Amino acid sequence: MLNFLPSPVVGTLASILLLINVLLWSTLLFAFAIIKILIPLKILRLVIDPILTKIAEGWVACNSGWMALTQKTNWDVKGLGQLKYKGWYLVNANHQSWVDILVLQHVFNGKIPLLKFFLKQELIKVPIMGLCWWALDFPFMKRFSKEYLEKHPEMKGKDLETTRKACEKFALIPTSVMNFLEGTRFTQYKHEKQQSPYQHLLKPKAGGIAFALNAMGDKFQSLLNITIVYPDGIPSFWDFLSGKVKNIIVRVKEENIPQHFTQKDYNNDPDFRHEFQQWIHGIWQEKDQEIHLLLNGQSQQPLK
């Protein structure tokens, strides 16, 4: 609606609306979260957590509102038909930009349970948002480098234990656990440094998602494999706020999770680790091909 204005003006207006939205909904969120802090009882969580979730969904809906007001984006989305709001989903997507977060929230709000993203431990320090993510039980991950683990072998497996504890919280109410398998945003530099075998993707990191399956795989009914494509080029967050992202393509494919994946030890079973990595590799090959086709103006058969 306001996209006819100059890009810097649109970006400024969108930024102001985004900030107002953050302050409004985070205040409401904190008001209920403090009850959970002061009275940490499981029975109380069953009451408070759904309220916090509804607040977060209202927050996302208002984000979609200012996006509609300031952007003129053509959304090409397929594959939402069979999703259930009261289901448990393990969700993964390719990762190219911070815009991905808003895209995923916009597309799935009200269609599946609120997306809970795996976040780096350092992000808990982000002003306001860090506390919001904590209040909503977003899983914070502390990754250790190979060099660190060589010096501190006693820390081996601690990062995955954190994943298990975080996922245990999700067993109380329907949840969508979101993980970017690449672990970082795609850039050509990272792609070349990794010597990635995929044309449009970085190498996937299977450990976190394997452990999430092991922690609460009996709850997850399927894996949602999300492909996000920006036909006009990967945008920065400011590009999006400024109304420069004219086309966004999202494809959703629901994948069955082999039942035995929830009962195996990814860390200590090399045969299973190889099998799981091959499963992820197959998904990634298909995603890479789909991105190539979509970027070249071709479309695979519509997803059901």
Structural summary, described in words:
The protein contains 10 helices and 8 strands. The mean pLDDT is 87. α4 (129-135) links the parallel β4 and β5 (140-141). It has a 6-stranded mixed sheet with strand order 1-8-7-2-6-3, with helices on both faces. A two-stranded parallel sheet has the order 4-5. The protein is globular. The protein has a single domain, classed as Glycerol-3-phosphate (1)-acyltransferase. It has helices at residues 7-38, 42-70, 99-108, 129-135, 146-151, 158-169, 188-194, 207-216, 237-241, 270-295; strands at 74-78, 89-93, 115-117, 119-120, 140-141, 176-179, 222-229, 247-255. With 304 residues, it is α/β, with parallel strands linked by helices.
